[in-house]
Amino acid sequence: VQLVESGGGLVQPGGSLRLSCAASGFTFSSYNMSWYRQAPGKERELVATISRFGYSTDYADAVKGRFTVSRDNPRNTFYLQMNSLKAEDTAVYYCNRRPPTNWGRGTQVTVSS
Q: Is the CB of residue 86 less than 8 Å from the CB of residue 64?
């Protein structure tokens, strides 16, 4: 199993970023997929989940209405569109299947002016 996150960066408050997760080594469409994040000094937390074929999504209260998760099964990729970013969204973002398997390196998102 390999999960490779990309798309992070430095963005000003109110800005947007789109994260991508490229998955391989398993049957992607057989799994719900999730985004997680870990801020400095805090535990990793669940941010968003999308069902196997994208019919159902779920979000942490802190990101509802601002983040949107989507997936492209033929490309074994899923995404996190992040809008109206806040300083408290600063974290390393990870993707994983449900239940989680080995973790990738993540992608750093920094929201700062």
A: no
